[in-house]
Design goal:
10 helices; single chain; alpha/beta; 2 domains; six-stranded mixed sheet; Rossmann fold; four-stranded antiparallel sheet; globular
Length: about 240
């Protein structure tokens, strides 16, 4: 039987008086990739930020490995194995690649293992090895996205929250990036909750998917079933 590692139950969230999430219920099982798709303003990124406590849930519960984390400080979550790669990458632009990776391991004390993990992410993202002494802000958008993901992997996550990893990137870079996402899931055993505007690549990558509209889950199913749904294809795939 599959083990649920992350679970949202009737989660609501507000920006001031504006209600952004209106009762989100979803779950991520260990070893899965689950995609959240929907139009701009549907509440996709808000869902991830609410999981991380950046936005506080005004109702409902967020459970990680069975523990309610609604009121937990966001900086405590990476140490528990839950890490977000935010929309827009948010690397430290003036720090080198290596220094950015060190920031990812800020909560860890196992120096020998940290060194091994640096080599692991360099193997996963070879371009970062070449850029290791370069300032993060001087790299291309695709390279910065790889750095943001590599930095998150330095926390040794069990669950990775990816927010719009394809945003602003060329199609060939996006295809390469999503192959790495699959590899992180299969080879590293990391469960992934993926928010992605590109519904086609999101559903082709995921095991299951949720469709959000104006703060509600309006559909959920196996990813391939959603991909073949004519309403989904018309609304999100441009057909």
């Amino acid at each position: 039987m599959a083990e649920t590692i992350l679970e949202l139950t009737d989660v609501q969230a507000h920006y001031g008086r504006i209600q952004a999430l209106k009762g989100i219920t979803l779950n991520l099982e260990k070893g899965e990739i689950v995609s959240i798709i929907g139009a701009n303003g549907a509440g996709k990124s808000t869902t991830l930020m609410t999981i991380c406590g950046i936005i506080k849930a005004s109702a409902g519960t967020v459970r990680y490995k069975g523990q309610v984390i609604n009121d937990m400080s966001p900086d405590k979550l990476p140490g528990l194995g839950l890490c977000q790669v935010p929309e827009g990458r948010r690397i430290f632009p003036r720090l080198t690649v290596e220094e950015n990776l060190d920031m990812g391991a800020f909560h860890r004390k196992d120096k020998a293992e940290i060194k091994r993990d640096v080599e692991m992410v360099f193997d996963l993202f070879p371009i970062l090895r070449q850029r290791r002494h370069q300032a993060g802000g001087s790299m291309s958008g695709g390279e910065q996205q790889m750095l943001a993901m590599a930095r998150a992997l330095m926390t040794r996550p069990e669950v990775l929250l990816l927010d719009e990893p394809s945003l602003g990137l060329a199609p060939i870079i996006v295809a390469h990036l999503f192959e790495i996402i699959k590899d992180i899931n299969k080879e590293k055993g990391v469960s992934i909750l993926l928010v992605e505007q590109n519904a086609n690549i999101a559903l082709n990558t995921a095991n299951r998917g949720y469709v959000l509209e104006t703060g509600h889950v309006v559909m959920q199913d196996e990813a391939q079933t959603l991909l073949n749904n004519p309403d989904i294809r018309k609304a999100y795939l441009g057909e």
